[in-house]
Amino acid sequence: MRATCLEDLLVYQKAAAAADAVSALLKRPAIIKDRRLREQLGASSESVGSLISEGFAQSTDRHFAEYLYRARGSSKELRNQMRVARGRGHITEEERATFADRYVEIEKMLTGLIRHLRTEDRQDRP
């Protein structure tokens, strides 16, 4: 089944849900005080969904895939920032692992979609 709108993409849905979970985390007093980390966590979590969205609007599969590579990079960045948050005592190891699992799943989905797009390489995306 071909996605006809952005919301049809399961990876986009998962990225949006994960970003919502990160947003809830950003309301913790310890993270609010750690301004730089809070900004990085917020930016990278928002970036994953934003890049998927921006890529979906591209006219070719190859260009869409380029945005997905960047989204995958933002996901990896977020996982590192969660490691930093754990190291600073802002989150528990269980929370870090839960976020890591969510974002690893998103990264795997992005990799699969990238492979698919590179195989099809349509030039007339809607």
Write the layout of secondary structure elements.
Layout: H1 10-25, H2 29-33, H3 35-56, H4 61-87, H5 93-120
Helix content: over 70%
Cα gyration radius (Å): 15 Å
Main structural class: mainly alpha
CATH architecture call: Up-down Bundle
**What's the CATH class, please?**
Mainly Alpha
CATH superfamily grouping? 23S rRNA-intervening sequence
Largest sheet descriptor: none
Task: Give the low-confidence spans.
Answer: none
* Beta-strand content estimate: under 5%
- Tally of structural domains: 1
What does this protein look like?
The protein is mainly α and 126 residues long. The protein has one domain (10-120): de novo design (two linked rop proteins) (Up-down Bundle), CATH 1.20.1440. The chain is 78% helix and 0% strand. The chain has five helices and no strands. Helix 1 runs antiparallel to helix 3.
In short:
The chain has helices spanning 10-25, 29-33, 35-56, 61-87, 93-120. With 126 residues, it is mainly alpha-helical. The model has no long low-confidence stretch (mean pLDDT 93).
Question: Any descriptors?
Answer:
single chain; 126 residues; de novo design (two linked rop proteins); 0% strand; elongated
